[in-house]
Design the sequence.
């Protein structure tokens, strides 16, 4: 796919129109991949690999060729997109005909009409890593200027990913805090019930709840919840 300077400008304008909070992560990354396909001279197809834990996945791609070439690497546990995900660097394969680092994958790429590729690690430092993968149908499709352009799109994808990770982390923290507050509330209620029945102090009531939890191999919150449920008639 040949790109004109006008096409590159339009692709960067598209980046500026992508609101990171307006859609889900996969939608945002799909728009970035599409913009990169239009904006990087020599690109035929583009994909975005995410490596969550040890499981890689192509969460965005502009065509089945890119997805299938990514998946060959996942299935065989080798290839530039996996190595770039781990290293965070840029891996350029200018000519699949002379590529000797991943000969099996290079042969697969040639069979599918791909003769050069770029895999650019997304520069983030969290538990999720990934790459922007750019595939070309002719050898030496990407010059240094094209590589720099691809790095710009990868950086934007990394911002989207970091934004999503921050949102997920914040949501998880809020959920954990809410759970902790709910646990504390039900334990305080249960302590009040025990204090009323036993005429004991708050410390003694909590110690009793703790012993009951230990004896029944349950959490204090679960014991407290059962006690409150019985007292209010919401539970047998």
Sequence:
């Amino acid at each position: 796919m040949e790109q004109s300077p006008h096409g590159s400008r339009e692709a960067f304008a598209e980046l500026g129109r992508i609101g990171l909070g307006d859609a889900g992560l996969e939608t945002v990354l799909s728009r970035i991949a599409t913009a990169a396909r239009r904006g990087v001279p020599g690109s035929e197809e583009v994909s975005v690999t995410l490596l969550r834990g040890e499981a890689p996945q192509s969460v965005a791609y502009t065509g089945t060729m890119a997805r299938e070439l990514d998946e060959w690497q996942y299935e065989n546990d080798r290839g530039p997109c996996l190595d770039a995900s781990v290293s965070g660097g840029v891996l350029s394969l200018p000519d699949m005909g002379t590529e000797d680092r991943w000969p099996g994958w290079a042969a697969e790429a040639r069979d599918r009409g791909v003769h050069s590729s770029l895999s650019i690690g997304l520069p983030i430092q969290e538990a999720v890593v990934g790459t922007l993968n750019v595939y070309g149908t002719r050898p030496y499709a990407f010059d240094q200027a094209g590589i720099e352009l691809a790095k710009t799109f990868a950086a934007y994808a990394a911002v989207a990913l970091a934004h999503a990770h921050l949102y997920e982390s914040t949501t998880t923290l809020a959920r954990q805090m809410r759970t902790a507050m709910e646990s504390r509330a039900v334990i305080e209620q249960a302590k009040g019930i025990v204090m009323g029945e036993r005429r004991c102090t708050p410390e003694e009531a909590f110690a009793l709840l703790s012993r009951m939890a230990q004896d029944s191999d349950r959490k204090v919150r679960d014991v407290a919840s059962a006690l409150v449920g019985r007292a209010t008639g919401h539970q047998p």
Summary: Residues 144-198 form the longest helix (55 residues). Residues 5-169 form a domain with the Beta-Lactamase fold (CATH 3.30.450.40).
